[in-house]
What does this fold into?
Amino acid sequence: MKKTSTRLADGRELIYYDSRDDVVREAVDRRPLDRTVTTSEIRRDPLLGDSVAIASHRQGRTYHPPADECPLCPSEGERLSEVPDSAYDVVVFENRFPSLAGDSGRCEVVCFTSDHDKSFADLSEEQAGLVLEAWTDRTAELSHLDSVEQVFCFENRGAEIGVTLGHPHGQIYGYPFTTPRTALMLRSLAQHKEQTGGRNLFADVLEKELADGSRIVLEGEHWVAFVPYAAHWPYEVHLYPKRQVPDLLGLDDAARTEFPKIYLELLRRFDRIFGEDQPVTPYIAAWHQAPFGSLDEFEGVNRDDFALHLELFTIRRTSGKLKFLAGSESGMSVFINDVPPETAAERLREVASK
It folds into this structure.
């Protein structure tokens, strides 16, 4: 992998990740852009104890542009985009309309390929491996920022999810705090550790799923994917490395080599859940990593107790119907799942690639 860092016209950082070492990246951003001005602010909810990012400047962000005006495609002639070069393998840049910025963290965009019409599932194993290297590198870099305590790499895919740009891309958020969802996991870790005399919750969950087998979707030598026992979403899969590590940086070469094959197969199965003649499946793919900030409030827990894993889920519950977060989910955070996890796992095994 070759990494080349440059600056866009408004001062934002852009990084090319290339699979070849001989690629030269010298293109200059020719757009007449003013310096990016953001108004991100973090406010803490005194009742729930969580934090909300207030980012009014995002109201003006690009919204469903035509394909020939996509800001994530490479620049070509006088059609200038966020990427100055005429082609790229993987590119990462600071978001022009960030939810988090300055002392309130950082937001980055990850473009998986320069091909506008592809999706992550269409990538080659080499390309998917390069994306993994980019995620890992950005996790390492962002972890050193004073304004970042937790790094979250994720992909929103599909208009139903709320995606406003059709180009295959994801995002990376550097939060200035430990997110509420991760805090819940850490509290569960601490409680389980105390109640079982030091056993690790993640290890026990994985061991139980492997022993049961009914919810296992896909298993390799170094990775295993399963529908969790208490899945929140109609089709939800958790992907774990079998050797527990706290973050992407901890993956060894064997796990990195196998990941593209396992993950691409998983994404391709997701697109076949509802039938070959159905539109592609909208999904969210979310990496869960241990925070880099202090864990003192979670008594007895350290970073190595956390288990890196990816959670992949769709809001589509059946053909042509979405799972809406209505009263119980939105009002009380109590999910009601219409698809039994065992049924979802069976379906995801049925649609395996031949």
